[in-house]
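During the no-cost extension, the postdoctoral fellow (Dr. R.K.) reprocessed legacy sequence entries with the updated structure-token encoder. One reprocessed record is reproduced below for audit purposes.
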Amino acid sequence: MPFGPASRLGVSLFDETPPVEWVPGYSQEEAETIIKAVYRQVLGNAYVMESERLVVPESQFKRGELSVREFVRAVAKSDLYCSRFFTSCARYRAIELNFRHLLGRPPLDLEEMRGHSTILDTQGFAADIDSYIDSDEYQNTFGENIVPYIRGYKTEACTSMVQFTHTFQLVRGASSSSLKGDLSGKTPKLNALVIQGTPTAVISPASGGATFSTPPIGSRSRHGVDASSGGKVYRIEVTGYRAKTFNNISKFRRSNQVFLVPYDKLSQEYQRIHQQGGVIASITAV
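Re-encoded structure tokens follow.
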């Protein structure tokens, strides 16, 4: 059943696709479907080459020696996962992606993120992965035989509206990956938002130039005291630096900044941003 208006927010495929579950007696072809579903969820919808697949855990799963949960654990503890989402990412970006990949939701609050940071400091990467998979939440939600799935847009998975809105910072749609489909890449998206308990705008990925990137920590800059005669103000989102031969230093160092600009100043602002090394991610009317 469609999820109402939220079907336009990039979650319709998640909502309309039933959980993938292993049932004893499944064929090898059905086992392969489950293996691919685990890779897709745990690796954040990233492409996995044949040479990167975990041949031994796959074989153990097909022979019934590993449950779905233990296969998820093997993928999450693998060098493949570690290199993509831990060693190459900032600490809190890695933690928020673990929540997405293993529990299907964003972190609840700063204490929850800090708890996992403490485990990483005192026990290491493998122990932190275990803390998600061995949690009561994982067992009660997915059990031994259900592949984890995105569920943070559902009321039973979130305890606050703030946490609900943060889901759309981590999930931009069923076709985007955790890193390549995201403006923030390997830098944290939710750290400041979780610390301050700040909700974020939920924007349809189908709208023109829409993006689910973190708003600036500071206040937004608005140019002009009023809208144009047409009554419109435009929201310009500026993201990472793209080098230019005549401008080696960008003034836009944060993952993104937002400017509200009246129509008659739009062309001038567009030129200023590019002259200073910024990259415009979206321009939308507000």
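The mean pLDDT is 78. The first helix runs from residue 12 to 16. The remaining legacy entries will be reprocessed before the final report is submitted.
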